[in-house]
Design a protein that fits this description.
Oligomer: single chain
Strand order of the largest sheet: 1-2-3
Distance between the termini: 67 Å
Largest sheet: 3 strands, antiparallel
Strand content: 5-15%
Helix content: 55-70%
Order of helices and strands: HEEHEHHHHHHHHHHH
Shape: elongated
Number of strands: 3
Length: 434
């Protein structure tokens, strides 16, 4: 792969996956730079290509790869037009990148990938993930994912993301060396935290609920759209029947024949246009699907907060328990039933030396516990600040994008209706000339 101009693009970021250090370094750099990667680099997924090869278990498989092209923005502004750097990536590599970003930046609403297999499609449209039309829409979705990440004030400056765009070989090894998989929170652990947090943050609880509702509403909207597309397809194809009937009728009419045949041609053209129209509709549906998947990214940020809060509460609870043990040991009184207290009654009290040793050990544990609670508090506070900043950024982006998508969809529907009216006006003109 060519390296022309790549040295001009400053890349910063921390790949050790320590949230607080990575977060602070990136924030400080953003203050200095004030720009995202997208302002320094042009990024596109130029094309898709079907390939055949052997998978991990040595079996033949067919898969799709996508060509990523990049070039420095400075080159365009200076009037030069160098050949862009380029490399091929599989969808699974995009998945690996996103999984890494989810672990490395848990406080960020990480942009989603386009669907791997088509969902919520009208029944005449294939759901085959190797279908050329679907692959093209997925190419557009993957480009959109890269542009989302490249324009994000934090994600865009990650070194792993930069190497994904510019280094064809060795990229996967670099990702796995970060150890991000071992640091990923298990689903069971997150679920446990959800049910056991005693003092949940109301804002995050409401945002998590909003994510559930947003996903439910968009899912229903996509189902309705698919049903409407089915009916629309039927209406258009019925016009093809009009065309056939008018053409057959024109063959037996002398005076009316030309007018009937012309009207039939208008009907046939109208019927044939439905495939392109509904394919274009799928692009608007993909914009809605992006926010269907964004909803899960929002919930992931909220779940991580629950886990952070739960770990803080567990540390505080353990510290309280240790202090109570110290008090009981120092005074010789047991406030609550415990196996230790029962054992003391059955087998006698501890010697002063034993009690002194235990007190020293408890004092050490309490000091460590106090430091841990302090750290957990700082982590939780920092997470709340960082996550809420990104949630507010996401909400602003969402409002803008969905507004634009729905307006465009409405304009398209109006255009389709006007086209139908025009077809019947044309038919009317044909009938008038008979």
């Amino acid at each position: 792969m060519a390296d022309s101009g790549s040295e001009d693009i400053a890349v910063i970021g921390n790949t050790d996956l320590t949230p607080s250090e990575s977060e602070n370094n990136l924030k400080n750099t953003m203050v200095e730079k004030g720009t995202s990667l997208l302002k320094r680099m042009e990024i596109s997924v130029a094309e898709a290509e079907k390939r055949t090869g052997k998978n991990a278990v040595n079996m033949q498989e067919t898969y799709t790869v996508y060509l990523i092209e990049t070039r420095p923005v400075d080159a365009a502004s200076e009037g030069t037009n160098p050949v862009p750097d380029s490399l091929w990536r599989r969808y699974s590599e995009f998945e690996l990148l996103r999984n890494y970003l989810l672990v490395a930046y848990p406080f960020v609403v990480v942009p989603p990938l386009p669907e791997k297999r088509a969902e919520f499609v009208w029944h005449k449209l294939t759901a085959d993930n190797m279908d050329p039309d679907f692959v093209e829409r997925r190419r557009v979705g993957l480009e959109n994912f890269l542009l989302r990440v490249a324009s994000h004030p934090v994600l865009s400056n990650d070194k792993i993301f930069y190497s994904f765009l510019t280094e064809e070989n060795g990229w996967k090894e670099t990702v796995f060396e970060t150890g991000f998989q071992a640091k990923a929170d298990s689903r069971l652990k997150a679920l446990n935290a959800t049910f056991r947090v005693k003092n949940p943050d109301k804002r995050f609880a409401e945002m998590k609920h909003y994510g559930d509702e947003l996903q439910a509403v968009i899912s229903q909207l996509l189902r309705v759209r698919a049903r409407a597309a089915d009916r629309l397809y039927g209406v258009y194809k019925v016009h093809g029947n009009y065309g056939r009937v008018f053409s057959e009728w024109s063959a037996i009419e002398k005076e009316m024949g030309d007018g009937l045949q012309s009207a039939g041609h208008h009907m046939d053209a109208y019927a044939a246009s439905v495939d392109d129209i509904l394919e274009e509709e799928e692009h608007y549906a993909d914009q809605l699907k992006e926010y269907l998947f964004y909803a899960d990214a929002v919930r992931a940020v909220c779940r991580k907060h629950e886990l952070t809060q739960f770990e803080l509460e567990m540390a505080a609870q353990d510290l309280t328990s240790k202090k109570q043990q110290r008090e009981e040991l120092a005074t010789g009184t047991v406030r609550t039933f415990s196996l230790k207290g029962m054992t003391s009654k059955l087998f006698g009290q501890e010697t002063p030396e034993q009690r002194e040793a235990k007190l020293k050990m408890l004092e050490t544990q309490i000091e460590e516990g106090e430091e841990l609670v302090k750290e957990r508090n700082a982590e939780c506070d920092e997470y709340v600040k960082s996550a809420w900043v990104d949630i507010e950024r996401f909400k602003e982006q969402k409002d803008h994008d969905l507004k634009e998508a729905l307006i465009s969809y409405a304009i398209m529907q109006i255009s389709m209706c006007k086209k139908g009216i025009q077809v019947w006006n044309n038919a009317k003109e044909c009938f008038s000339k008979m």
